[in-house]
Write a structure and sequence with these properties.
homodimer; 5-stranded parallel sheet; 8 helices
């Protein structure tokens, strides 16, 4: 049975290092699920491994470029699922209040949900941020918190929904609400509902809602 | 002159893929600064590259395992610096309100600051989350928001400060405030000050403060 492990490697900096490290990992048949280059000298891997972590750690340590290798807790174990809230500062703050309070209640019961935010203004920066969310690890839902959003932001919302992200929109002017999975008027409730929708500890199932506007 | 670029690769899933992709990137002399395995079939790289991105994209595309390669906006360009707020839900929410409002004001003037939160309870989970922050990309500051924190959380705070993170603590019971760079009683002000401390658009310099308790 494979296990999911975290490995931190301290090594010489520079081009080609990742290629050498991943070569050792590939020879152990491990499937890398996440890589973080913390700084030029420290690289952190998460992987599914069938064999013995100590054998892999030993082989990595024997590379001449490597100074130190240690096993660490995985991000999934520490930070869990993420929701991202973006838009105008006033509304993002209120959605965050709801989401953080609700995440707290689920995390106490064993869930791991973190709440990330980015206050942003303008159609192009927001559309880019929406699209970028689909490339961030562990993101399950996105909340658009503002007063007017449309145009390319609407297209970005449809793209990331097609890639599996849940998108919640505040009730606002523009075409974004019509493109979202769920539209909520109260920002605090929008944050709460988004967390409920991704929490395994909640009874809320967005697919069973007849009304998607609140 | 080298440029910082983002490259998204769609390829066959499975062990060894990252080793093949990084081999091509190493041959182009690029220094990889960030990797995100979005899902098994989609891997996103950021790198500093001296040469022509199109030549690299062409060589990656010619690998038999690769289906599609595209150039994308970098995370740094979209999400920028991060601050992380962790602790009890009530206090984390209030610190977030301050931090998000202040980040909004700086982001309008050209900064890129995002505000991430995780509501968490218990000494061991919090100590782990503090230590894990030092392995997350783009994190510059950490706010500990609670009513009682000490023991292993204090040790974790000293470790991540030694690794270069700025740590702000609410005024609270336990030994964490004494280990922090800055102690603030009002949670909204704690969020605002943390953003000011990392914003290039702010005049605030924590090293010039005579008093570190507010």
């Amino acid at each position: 049975m494979s296990q999911h492990i975290g490995i931190l490697v301290e090594a010489e900096p520079g081009p080609g290092i990742l290629h050498q490290l991943t070569g050792v990992i590939a020879r152990h048949g491990a499937d890398i699920t996440s890589v973080v280059i913390v700084e030029a000298r420290r690289t952190y891997f998460e992987m599914d491994l069938e064999g013995d972590p100590d054998a892999l750690i030993g082989d990595l340590s024997r590379l001449p470029i490597v100074h130190r290798v240690s096993q660490e807790k995985t991000f999934e174990a520490v930070f869990g699922k993420r929701i991202v809230i973006m838009g105008g500062g006033a509304q993002v703050g209120q959605v965050a209040i709801g989401a953080i309070s609700e995440a707290d209640r689920h995390n106490i019961r064993g869930e791991k949900i973190s709440v990330d935010t980015i206050p942003l203004v303008g159609e192009q920066p927001l559309a880019e941020a929406v699209r970028t969310c689909a490339r961030l690890p562990r993101v399950e839902a996105l909340v658009l918190a503002g007063s007017l959003m449309g145009g390319d932001i609407e297209r970005a919302v449809r793209e990331v929904r097609a890639q599996g992200l849940l998108v919640v929109s505040l009730n606002m002017a523009g075409s974004v609400p019509a493109a979202a999975d769920l539209v909520v008027s109260d920002p605090v409730q929008a944050g709460v509902m988004t967390v409920m929708a991704i929490a395994n500890t909640a009874k809320f199932d967005i697919n069973r809602l007849k009304n998607r506007n609140f």
